[in-house]
Fold each of these.
Amino acid sequence: MKFSIHNDSFVEKEQECIVVGVFNKPTFDGDLAVLDQKFDGQLTQFIKEGDINSKLKNVSKIPSFGKVPAKRLLFVGLGKDKELTFDQLKEAFGVAAKTLKHMKRSTFGVALDTFVTEGIDTFDVAHAFAEAFSLATYEFQNYKQKSNEPEVPLEMIELITGADEQEVRASAEVGYAYGRGTNSARTLVNLPGNMLTATKLAEYALELANKYDFEAEILDKEEMERLGMGALLAVNQGSVEPPKMIVLKYQGKDEWKDVVGLVGKGITFDTGGYSLKPKDGIVGMKTDMGGAAAVLGAMEIIGELRPEQNVVAVIPSTDNMVSGNAFKPDDVITSMNGKTIEVLNTDAEGRLALADAITYAKHHGAEYLVDVATLTGGVIVALGTDKTGAMTNNEAFFEQVLEASFEAGEYIWRLPYTEKDKQRVRSSKMADLNNSPGREGHAIMAGAFIGEFAENTPWVHLDIAGTATTKKEEDLCPAGATGAMTRTLALVVERFQSSES
Ligand code: BES
Ligand code: ZN
Ligand code: ZN
């Protein structure tokens, strides 16, 4: 699919369909007034009678009956112009995109300038459209014998505008990159555990590295043993699938400094291990690599947009299985940084895998850390399924992550992290730390455990157990994987400012 930019009036444009924004206003102005004249004032009438609905997120398709060269017009309701937000605009475009997808045409046009309002210029509109279109039309290619390939592939979207062609194209390409990176993350999460093993995830990361010229390192089991990654290795102990520590580096600055480390939980299937999950709780645990997917999706966006930043992505990957070799409750293990851990619950495996990954990210020069993980059921109880739980040891860095999440339209909510929390993860009689200090505030305990490995490095923890998937379809996402935090992570990197600068 390609974008082409056209500097003419949409009223005169020949097209299968043109997408037009309509605000809840008493009169039309600009090109819409011209369009209304061509329709002999009928559009005003359509609005009055509800055939065109200007309420936010309503779409109305009208044939042109030869009054304009375009065959049909798709009106997108935007509500009151002063109230429209960037996120709502994306959602409205999402609704329109689904209608367009069902129309099965190879091309259509978008009258960008009809969507412009006080706080949202044409470039924002181009970005919002491209991002929303890719997100809303995403579909996982399933394994049914009858394929769900679209019969008419979309070839060209014409963006019609009076604004600067180059800038409009650049904005659309940024939006499209954000959408596609998120979709790639969704696909990784939707893949079943037998199709996406740690080895496959590593192969996928290598393909990204090849495409975007990232430096890559994939550690195998022997190398992990040599480096003393006892925490990740313990999680892998019961598996027949070899573990992988996946590292990708992108250098956008002359020197390897101010490095942002993105660390994503890559558990390809979580049975719980000997602290086995109940049969209802185990279904869906193919999504336990949602953090890894978000990191790889963000790396794809970074590879496309090539910001002047330095990033190291680190993904500890394995499944968490049961067997005669598997690790057990009461085991004591030693992590890469030397800290010993008493295992009280083998289902609290994510924090173990992440512990070594955080240490390894620091080894690779990470001076700022963001970890992303489908870490706890507790965060779902606390915040529901539309807010990612966050923790931090550094206010200024947290502010940067919070701002990025606002800009991306992904909600995060901070959980407290106090000295008492630190004491609870250090409360083992057998070892330096224990991996499961009990049910009370256990989302906080998981974060606090990871904090023991971040130590003094500015760090933000993101628990996406609730947000990585959605049970019901949304305007910008079908049911299934959401790609949560992909866009936020990419924005954290794009907008990153070192505390030294
Ligand atoms: N992968 C799970 C968390 C999870 C739950 C993700 C639901 C997505 C949906 C994690 O490894 C886990 O099992 N956490 C336990 C921790 C507990 C044993 C301390 C939990 O949250 O119950
Ligand atoms: Zn678990
Ligand atoms: Zn898990």
Amino acid sequence: MTQMTAPHAPITAEAFADEIRNYLLTEQGVTPQEATVKDVYVATAKATRNHLVPAWAKTRADMVKGNTKAVGYLSAEFLLGRQLRNSLLDAGLSEQFSKAMAELGFDANEVVFSEPEPGLGNGGLGRLAACFVDSLASLGVPAFGYGIQYQYGIFRQEFDDQGRQYERADYWLTNENPWGHTDYNRDVRVNFGGSVQEKDGKRVWVPDWSVRAIPVDYLVPGYESGRVNTLRLWTAKAYHEIDLRTFNRGDYYGAVHNQIQAEDITKILYPEDSTPQGKELRLQQQYFFVSASLHDAIRTFYPGQEKPDLTTFPTKITFQLNDTHPVIGIPELMRILMDEYGYDWDTAWDVTTRTFNYTCHTLLPEALEVWPADLIGKLLPRHLEIIRKINENFVKLLSSLTDDQAKIDRMRIVTEGDNQQVRMAYLATAGGSHVNGVAELHSQLLKDVTLRDFNDLFPAKFTNVTNGVTPRRFVRIANPRLSDLITEGLGTDSWVSDLSKLEGLVPLADDDEFVHRFAEVKRANKRDFAAFAKERYGFEVNPNTMFDSMIKRLHEYKRQSLKILAVISRYASLKSGQTKLEDFTPRTVIFGAKAAPGYALAKETIQLINNVSRVINNDPEVEGKLNVLFPWNYNIELAQNLIPATELDEQISQAGKEASGTGNMKFALNGALTVGTLDGANVEIRDRVGHENFFLFGMTVDEVEDLYAKGYDKGMSRQYYESDPRLKQAIDMVADGTFSNGDKSTYQNLVNDWLNKDYFMTLADFRAYVGIQAEIEKTYADEKTWFRKALLNTARSGYFSSDRSIADYLERVWLTGPLPEDEKLKSRED
Ligand code: GLS
């Protein structure tokens, strides 16, 4: 069988170099001799994109012509990471690129690094969306990713000389962006404000102001699928940018008021992860991209039709609501169907409920978005009417299903009384076909706790789809050494598109030579990371230490403070001689984390980590034994460098709080062992890799609940402090100024919280955490055992491919599949 490696005929390195030269000259206006690294990056990106365009057009045409229902992935965040290597891989041009760079006299890595990273997401949720569009294309499923092109993505994190985080704007779009094509000819009008009036017995929305939504199209190539999908990110522009009369009066700011109001909508990504703030601008963003996307889908699937039969809409496309952020799409589709196309309520409701599905990504009650009805009424008056009617009908439906009035009241989409609120998760559950959580435990807790009443009455709606990560970016590209070894071990590279094949490595865990080579890969990656950390951050890293990483957003529930308290405790124990230096397993402890700018306790934790790092790293007594690194501005680049080099991965959230986690999957695939709680996808990772290959500690969900019932967060944590000398010593050191040049007030809020509240039970889990670390060290001392376990983590984590997640969505939620093979083959021949 001949295997296609790319959606087009491959070309030679010389020909590719010529194409790059051509772009340099015709678009950048420079010869290779004059070109800078950035010029070469832009020209290479354009040349690469050009190779993908024919398959892109063909995929779209097949999608519109064919009978395969498409997927619309509506997400306020797509955390893409750099595009060049990924596009080269999918275009089948990776090798040509290396040679072409050599021919042109440029360093391939430098060219890759010169691409600014598009940080259009906060963390796991946004990165998951990026993995999902990659997998949809790789599986050949026709799909659109729909979102927002923020002018400023997640802030750049820096640390000041006190170790405090400060935030800088992320100017990622300041330079040329060769990947996104701004399509001014396919703009969409999005309206806001105004009122609803009665005309000829109909409710008519008379808006107050409008914004021009312009699509910026990114190509999403599939790996070896011959397909290229579209990621359409909307940018906002004003219809009338300048008011000349106001300008002529000398009011220059007033003259551009319209422009500012419009462009503000897509100016900046809100930097909260898991705990969004209900700001008016955020609702504007949500409505803006959802309204534009729904109109875009209608014109795409019913081209040129003035009176399309939109009762077929759910057979053309199914929309996935990525968390509550796009849920305003439900009343918007109702409005479009009724007000723009004249359908009656019942038909519109039938179409709408068959079109949408909802993924919930959280267990934190504060993360389920709730909007004041007044705010929705002010910004989207017609939508508020529709939401009220949906609520009214829903309450009627509930009354026909149960006599339990309290339950009905709990389930209202719009709350009653003063300050009415619209609960977006409930609207999504009522208005969509399916609701899913993102790991088995999470989906179960959604059914048992968060959406329990809904599950009681509509059990068929609920399902689980465990998250996954793309093996292309997070193994093949991030870890070339491991990729080569896997390919050698399996005798094929087909694992890149079918990660379940990794299972074939299991027998090699008994092959000492192979395990040794696996260990060599890790060691080489550690040396690479040490060099990267030195160059990028100026850190001295000893590669002959255990690399122990915790990279994720800074959040109390994730419990970075548990880890830093344990580090302090080991430091104290080394200093006091309780632990002999020669018995100590040398460790490099690495943190990467951004805190939401307004999250005070999280920011104090960042400051503490930085200062613990400063004190320990400058203490000659522990030199070479304990080192704490906190590279700033954790992003995808850092993840791609650190994950392949990590030996121990920390997933230590309080049980029942992390919906899934996806970093845990990336680490396991790259041969790190996890120390973790029974939370999120940790549970499934442990079951798959084998309980003996996972370091479990801490309370379970039930134990956590029991402890709350006993009043833990009402002052019980102090008992743990009093009764564990190591814990007491660590907290006392934070309180007494050891990590703040003697100042006792610096970490006052943290210390107070630990001793009086500690909602996420850091203190209660401390003893178990320190205990498991001793076991980890014992295992690490025996290299063969450690790397055998690590290899088994890689071999048994194939399930955590986002290709598998997408296959599950296709089967359980979207009820569609790839474009037919013949259409695919036709597209390759063209
Ligand atoms: C999150 C969860 O916190 C993560 O556990 C999860 O892995 C991710 C993707 O499902 O979604 N929810 C959220 O608001 N941010 C996340 O990262």
